[in-house]
Each structure stands twice: as C-alpha cells, then as structure tokens.
Amino acid sequence: MKRYLIALTGAVLLGACARIGSPEGGPKDTTPPRVVKGTPNGALNFRERAIYLTFDEWVTLQEVNTEVFVSPPLAKRPEVMLKGRTVIFRFDESEQLRPNTTYTIFFGTAVRDLHEGNPAQDLRFVFSTGAHLDSAALVGIVVDAFSEEPLEGVSVLLYDNLADSAIVAERPYYLIRTDKSGQFRLPNVRPGVYRCIAIEDADQNLRWRPEMERIGFLDSFIVVRPADTLVSVPVLRVSAPAPEGRLLSRRVNQYGVVRLGYGRLLALPDLRVEPPNSVRCLPVREQDTLVVWYDNPDSLSWTLYAGADTVPVRALSKATHLKQHRLFFGDERLSPSPGGRRPTQPTTPTALPPPRTVHVRPERPVYVPFNAPLTSADTSRILLLADSTAMRDFTLTIEPEAPLSLRLSLNWERGRRYALTLLPTALTDFWGATNADTLTRFFSVPTEKQVGTLVLVVENLKPQTAYLLRLMNGNTLEEERSFVAQETEQREVFADLLPVAYTVQLIEDANQNGRWDGGNYFARRQPERVFSKKTEALRPGWDMEFTLSVPSEASRRRQ
C-alpha cells in the first residue's frame, strides 16, 4: 500500500510538471509579436543571401505564398521558413538583386503568434544593395469604376519601362497591394518616371492578362522627383477590359440554349447552322451576351456560326430536356424536392411559391417574365380580375424583341388590385411545351396618396454631352432615361414611386451607345464616369426635390 501511494504521488507530480502551457483564465493576449533581434533592418550595401527575424514569442507562418511579397519583385520565389521563434527569408541561389536598389519585403499577416493568431503589425524589412535608401512614398486608392467602392487586394504596379506593352510582357519595377479600404502606400521609391496601373492579378504573375483581369490606369505618368518624400497618385478606377466584338465565353451544356459572352456586343452577328437540318434558332441579346435559343428535334450534333466565331454544339436529347423543363415565371425560383438526389436526376419542385405582387406605375408597360421564349398565348385560358371583377378589356402581347415576356396592357385604375391567372396550357413556348401549372401574379396600383414624386435636378452638366440617368430601388432598375444635355442643368420628374429611398445614377455616355462602358488601356479610354447619390425616403402623397451635382473637372483631376 505504501509503495502504491508513493507511485501515485510521483505520477501526480510528474503530470503537474508536464503542463507547461499558459494558465487557464486571465485576459486574452492581443499583443502582436515583435521582432527583437536579427538581420538589421535598413541595411546598406546588402549582400546577404538570407534574412533572419527573431520574435519575442513563438510564432507561426500562414499563407506565405499570398501574404509575403517583395518590391521590386524578385525573379525567383524565395523560401520563407520558421525555426523556433525565428522567421528565415532565404533568396533563391540564382536570384540576382539589382544594383543600387532599395528593396522592401512585405510580410502582410503571414507571421502570427502561436496561441491567439495575432498578426505582426506592418511587418516589413527594408534593405539597399547600394549606399543609401530611397525614401519617396506613393499613396493612393483603388476603386471599382462603376460603384466607386474601394477594392482590397488589388496589385498596384509601377513600371520604369514606359512602353505600352510592358505591362503584359514583363514584371513591374515596384509592387504594392491595397488594404481593406482600397488604399495603398508604396515606400522606398527612387526618383524617376513611372507608368502606374492597378490589376486584379488573378494568377499572381505580375503581368496583365487583358482577356481575364480587370485593370485601372492613369492618363499620364507618375513623376517622382529627388526632393519628393510623398507623392499622391490619382484614383485608379478598375474595370473589365472591353475588347470590341471578341467572343470571351461560351456555354453550350444545356439543351435549347447557347450563351455567347462578348467583350462588347455592338450588333447581333449573322447566324447560320451546319449541317442544314431541322435546327431552329432564336437569337436574343442580353447586353453583351448573345443568347441563342434553339430547337433540335433530331438530337444531332451541329455547329453554330456567329459571325466569324464557330461554336460546336453536341447532341443533347430534346425528350430528356422536356421531361425536366417546366414553364414558369422568369423572376421566381422553384423549390427543389426535399432529400438528396443524384446530379443526373431532374429537380422536381414540391410546391409553387406564393404568388408575387408587383407594383404598377400606370404610365409604364407591364411585362411578365418567363424562363423560356414564348410563341403563343391562349386568351381563353387566361383570367384577369380587378378586385373580384372579371376584366375583358385587356391585351396580352408577345413582342418579337422580347420573347421571354408577356406584355400586359389595360387601363389601370388606382387603388385596385389585379390578379392575372394563367390556367394550364395557356402559354406555349419555343419547344412546343405548355405551362403545366396554374400560374398567378398579382398587380397593385397604389392611389396618389400612397406614392410620391421625385423631382430630380442635375447640376454641372456638360452641354452637348450624352448622359444615362438611372433610378435604382436597391438592386432593381426602376427607370432609365437618356438625354443629351442642352444646358448645365437638367430637370427630370419621376412620378408614382413607392415611398422608399432610391439611388440616382448618372453616367457620362461618352460614346453615346446607351450604356456604361469600362476602360480601354490601349485606346487610352478611361471608364465612363458614374455619379451616384442616395435620396431620402419619399413620403406618400408628397413631391420631393433632390439635387445631384456633378463634380467639376478641376475636382475630378485632383482625384
């Protein structure tokens, strides 16, 4: 028994000695790790092949390949490793550093403390291969060209080679990335003249790929003078490249529809099919996408020629498609059946969603969208009620330029609620299928006391300039108008609006094509300017005047 007690006591003491971790409880550690010794920061005439940074606590390395980068960029990927509390940055054996150049190693949030994951703050290592450190810094912000929202993680690149092709052919001279607020600060820049661009560098190869990466650029070069310590860069507005007429994407994996995405689709291309068979095509333009609806009853492979582009379409079964297809409203989703299903099985909805109510502005046409092109509507299978009274004086039209919707026209009366009921087989679509369900949609026509009027005054316009004016209700386009300014001020009235807050968007339509266009680097065309402002909520039965003032040219140049 005595021997057992001695052994038990020894085991308890040994277990207590083995618990070396931090004690339970107490305040959470929020202190980031700090460098306490290692290779001197700011070293001159640097010739070392490795850099050592020792921290005041145990640390870990996370996401090294994305968080750690060097400006100017290195030709070879360095090795970043951890040994004890020391982070080691080792250059590739074949790396040749540029002479008389200041380098900055950015560690981002790669170095974190072991227990709480607090990242080291603003961890950078600077050295020069020459006798001094370059001291100028460039600061700026990168935003989305349309929304003006700041962009995080965008690469801002400086080139000392000023040729247009340099940004696609070689690495930049300097590199920095934007933070969460879209801002950047590039330190240790030498005097010189640079081209400055911002790209969403998807493949992180430090070269712009026009076919896939968005870009922002300046109209002029950045000049850093010997006496400069801080240089402010104008706002870099990032947009998608817009190669005119170039086919960028294609989707042909679904029977009945081919989707072709273009850089800029100015006009519908000529279409033809081979081999000549029973394939029927219906082209519909959706902004820069050409949607070709087709019917291929023979289920044979065929080829679609869209202008100069060749699009092979493999054989898909029409019968299988019709088993899965369900003609329904285009702005609603059918709920899938509960439980798991194999990917090859069609989705079978269990129940229709409740009917949607749409607000009607009496002076505007009403379109009911569908998920497939329509060819006919049987009015004997369609019922329209105003409150509980059957209506006869209405028309339903399928317009050739909008085959995916049904236009409903009637003399709308304020204060009434309408119900449109489409009985089974009321509609026939492009493939000869009919709606199997009873489809219902409600329409509400508010009284004058339930809606408001927005009187919009746009100031500081440029005469003889084309503009697009959009009224947005959240993400929904309420109304769009285009005009060419005759004066510096334009007045627009929007009536019968729901009493909510709206966003006014004004687009300088420089090429007068009736839409917003992004920039073109090689043509030196900046993205079209967009000016947005949110209104206060309208009050029912009231007129509200709202002013949107376009910034002056001088203030834009300061951006």
Describe what you observe in this structure.
- The protein has 559 residues and is mainly beta.
- It folds into five domains: 94 residues, Immunoglobulin-like, CATH 2.60.40.3710; 103 residues, Immunoglobulin-like, CATH 2.60.40.1120; 78 residues, Immunoglobulin-like; 88 residues, Immunoglobulin-like (Sandwich); 107 residues, Carboxypeptidase-like, regulatory domain (Immunoglobulin-like).
- Helices cover 7% and strands 40% of the residues.
- The chain contains five helices and 42 strands.
- The strands form twelve sheets. Strands 11, 12, 14, 15 and 16 form a five-stranded antiparallel beta sheet that branches. It has a five-stranded mixed beta sheet with strand order 26-35-33-29-30, with no helix packed on it. Strands 1-2-6-5 form a four-stranded antiparallel beta sheet, with no helix packed on it.
- β24 and β25 form a beta hairpin.
- The longest helix has 17 residues.
- It is elongated, with a radius of gyration of 32 Å.
- The N and C termini lie far apart (86 Å).
